[in-house]
Amino acid sequence: MRRFIIPIFLFLLYHNAFTQESSKFYGQAIDAQNGLPLELVIVYVPETNVYFETKENGRFSLDISATKNLIIKCSRLGYQTQTITLGNWSGTKDQEFNISLIPITNQEIIIKENVNTNNSNIKENVKSFELIPTTTGNIESILPSIALGVRSSSGGELSSQYSVRGGSYDENLVIINDFEVFRPQLIRNGQQEGLTFPNADLIRELNFSSGGFESKYGDKSSSVLDIKYKVPDSLRFSIMGSLLGASGHLEGSKKYKKNSPSKINYLLGARYKTSKYLLSSQDLKGEYQPNFLDLQSYITVDLNAAFQLAFIGNINRSQFKLIPEESTQAKGSISFVLKLNAYYEGQELDYFNQSMGGISLTYLPKNKKHPHFLKYMSAVYTGIEAEQFDILGYYRLSEIETTNDENAGKEIKLWGTGTQHLYTRNYLESLIFHNEIRGGLELENKGMGGHFMQYGLSFRHEDLQDRINEWERIDSAGYSIPNSDTLVLLNSVLKTKNQFTNTKSAFWLQDEISLFEQSKIALKITPGVRLQYTELNQEMIFNPRCKFEWVPKNSTRNVRYWFSTGLYHQPPFYRELRTPSGSLNEDLKSQKSAHFVAGMVANLRLKKVGPTPFKWISEIYYKKLWDVVSYDLDNVRILYSGQNDAEAYAIGWDNRINGEFAPGAESWVNLSFLRTYEHLYEVQHKVRESGNPNGKEVNSVPRPTDQFFSISMFFQDYLPRNPNFKAHLQATVTSGLPYGFKGDNIIYRNEYRHKPYHRVDIGFSTLLWDSHKKSAKPYNPLRFCRQSWISLEVFNLLKVKNEASVRWIKSVYNYQFAIPNYLSSRRINLRLRFDF
Q1: Which 3 state secondary structure label does DSSP give 144?
Q2: With the C-alpha atoms ordered 631, 634, 638, 643, is the resulting torsion angle positive or negative?
Q3: Burial class, 506, CB count within 10 angstroms (exposed 0-12 / middle 13-18 / buried 19+)
Q4: Residue 708: how many CB atoms within 10 A of its CB?
Q5: d(CA 768, CA 787)
Q6: What three-state secondary structure class fits 169?
Q7: Per-residue pLDDT for 545 more than 70?
Q8: Backbone conformation region of residue 233, classed left if phi is above 0, alpha if psi is from -120 to 50, else beta
Q9: Strand, helix or coil at 576?
Q10: Could you give the CA distance from residue 367 to residue 364 in angstroms, rounded to a whole number?
């Protein structure tokens, strides 16, 4: 198949590459009433991929090819859409045109922050990522490139989980239209992961905070991903298909009463994913049958000018089946190489089914003097998960010849042989009810600034039932380990049943205080507090938080500074409560942390690099953590101790530069440095030292997420004078994650490291059809759609063997060897997308 894909794609490239010429249409968007620049204005050519979203200065620039009766539209929420007609656009001369948008009073009810708010959260329009080459199909895969301090999990490209500034994967809050969403609990490796809740086809924008976030966000201690879905204004739908799956979405808006502004807005999305093609490149050969399906909807109904009713629903079905056959793995240096051959019997069958339904009622009256809102939300989440595998593996560990003669690759010494029998029947059922009411009030103080006060009260009930039955038998050189003269003993056994119920209630209050808005330096202070009570351990949490922002008004580089601090205590969920023996520690307290974050943002004018200013965001941070629940990582599985047994810290420096190397094609580069260490209470940690058999005593050791260095990049470009052919490159290089001996990772804790992770994915996309060409090509076979794209993607371009975890093998000499489990190799993918 590869023999035909590349020639076809090169032919399409040749056909489209140099057929069009273009020039710039540029200017500034302003408010018609006060003359101030407007950000977030979409300037676009209807039914094409040509668009631009204005930044803080309101400037825009479009590259538009020659065409007849050129129509340009400008739209922004809360303003009347403006249409510009230029007649015959020659495409040979740049033209400037300034846009004045008129505010409107009747609009969809959208709760927004104070219009003067310009906080330090990363905010992006997801449309920029429609053609990104991704193996997971999930929006989280782009976070390491666009958000500060985000690192991919140890599951690498197979996983959508991520670590933020040294935190675990369970410390990240994900919110969709103010509803918190949950992940499956039993997943232990990236290949089992399916589709996450956020659907990129439905998203309007995403906000991401890497720490120091406001009190309105929940009780996670690392990050917040806040996603808003679209508010559609016309009928649109799309279809996408590739070797890794397919997706489709439908959106529209319809008035349900004549001569009334009230409307029904609907978003429907369906996604299917199968990673069989990708998994077949791993060292473990066998029959993979992964099937993942996600269906969701978001519907809003304007009851009248003040009330809006919304419904959100999701059905997520994930099934993973594997019949392993054999694997070959190697590890070593130039002079010493170990090779592990294994043959298997049995199979693995897992499923992770999640469902969610929620409704919200928003009240936003027309009150210009004191605008306020109220919003009530109610949601229910259900999950049924199962791990079922019974696999018997026969392994042979040997040393092989590394010389360049005819004996190269031959076995020269046998280090170990035996069997490993894994049996698991784990089942988890979860039911979560969540109710919340929140409100806000905006107060203006002429001449000084104003206040935007927000508050919320929530109640959550958690009910989980867990059945665990897993054991491991190891036989080495004909002896069962551990060895007995009379019994066959298992290496490990875990059997238990748990029924867990808990109730959490919370209240939060915050105020955005804007000061000196008319002076040379504007100041915004956001104090807040969050209270939470957990019934299980009868713990009351009090978390004060505050953020300061300074904005010099006359700065030519749009410089802004901020400092945030506060307490971020995370009440335990089910996984943290479960000890290694399977029992629940119901006295477990919240993990506690204090954040200190200082940052700045500034425009960099690099005229030789790009046509528009680049934005540089930089933050330094320090996090102090105590009452930490220590854990070990095995791929993406987190094995908690179930005790508040550690203290830790994280310190680092994050940087992001983003801008356009070519007009309309934004790129991002992230550079981060991190050190996160921990100390287990009542343990004297040590590190091994040459010549010292007792080891060297140290005060702290690396946490499982410690990675000193990380650089991620998402780059976009297109051919000169033809934006219809695009290239997308995503690259990541990070330090290796630490790990320790299985079952003995206390004193000499996390003393080894995986190899550095580095990966490059690249994609080439060409516009096959645009409805704008209909007059020139009325008989094109693709004229039935609005746009169509074809993409050729190369995953793991450099064919690097990255490590996901290790498998511990005991030799006949009672040594333990860590044999790496590798991630996927190079794969080529073909993707088609149709927009209607």
Answers
A1: helix
A2: negative
A3: buried
A4: 14
A5: 8
A6: helix
A7: yes
A8: alpha
A9: helix
A10: 9
How far apart are the C-alpha atoms of 686 and 676, rounded to whole Å? 17
Distance CA 794, CA 760 (A): 9
Work out the burial of residue 732: count CB atoms within 10 Å of its CB; fewer than 13 is exposed, 13-18 middle, 19 or more buried: buried
Record the tokens describing residue 735, joined without a space. Answer: 């330090």
In whole angstroms, what is the distance from residue 171 CA to residue 437 CA? 24
Residues 623 and 213 sit within 8 Å (Cβ to Cβ): no
Domains and CATH numbers, the chain: 2-101 (2.60.40.1120), 122-835 (2.40.170.20)
Beta partners for residue 822, in sequence order: 803
Residue 772 φ/ψ, nearest 5 degrees: -65, -20
What span, in angstroms and rounded, lies between the C-alpha atoms of 298 and 313? 7
Q: What are 372's two structure tokens?
A: 């306020």
Beta strand extents in 635-721 (DSSP E only): 637-662, 665-680, 686-689, 692-697, 701-702, 709-719
Q: What is the three-class DSSP state of 597?
A: strand
Task: Report the Cα–Cα distance between both ends of the chain, in Å, rounded.
Answer: 29
Instruction: Give the whole-angstrom CA distance, residue 202 versus residue 129.
Output: 13
Confidence of residue 48 (pLDDT cuts 50, 70, 90): low
| Spatial separation of the C-alpha atoms in residues 386 and 425, rounded to whole Å | 7
CA distances from 622 to 55, 658, 806 (A): 30, 24, 31
Instruction: Give the pair of three-digit tokens for residue 710.
Output: 């990380």
- DSSP-derived letter for residue 619 is E
Give the closest residue to 354 by CA, choosing from 199, 183, 200. 183
Q: Which residues pair with 613 in a beta bridge?
A: none
Interatomic CA distance for residues 559 and 331, integer angstroms: 50
CA distance 511 to 216: 10
What does the alpha-carbon distance between residue 84 and residue 789 come to, in Å, rounded to a whole number? 27
For 338, 735, 821, the CA distances from 755, given in Å and listed in that order, are 16, 7, 12
Per-residue pLDDT tens over the stretch 352-389: 999 999 999 998 876 555 578 899 999 999 999 999 99
CA separation (Å) from 769 to 24, 48, 274, 333, 532? 22, 9, 28, 52, 54
Yes or no: say if 150 and 122 are a contact pair by the CB < 8 Å rule.
Answer: no
Q: Could you give the dihedral angle defined by the CA atoms of residues 198, 201, 205 and 211, in that order, rounded to the nearest 10 degrees?
A: 30
- For residues 199 and 296, what is the distance between their CA atoms, to the nearest angstrom? 8
Mean pLDDT of the chain: 85
Cα(273)–Cα(90) distance, integer angstroms? 44
Contacts of 673 (CB under 8 A, 6+ apart): 652, 653, 654, 708, 709, 710
Beta pairing partners, 626: 592
pLDDT per residue as tens digits for the range 107-161? 444 444 443 334 557 777 777 777 788 888 888 888 998 899 999 888 888 889 9
Nearest of 29, 33, 37, 25 to residue 85 by alpha carbon? 25
CB-facing half-sphere around the CA of 684: CA atoms within 13 A: 4
Query: Smallest Cα–Cα separation from 422: which of 366, 344, 496, 358?
Result: 344
DSSP-derived pairing of the beta strands 71-75 and 59-65: unpaired
Q: Distances from the Cα of 704 to the Cαs of 238, 579, 618, 740, 754, in angstroms? A: 41, 18, 25, 9, 11
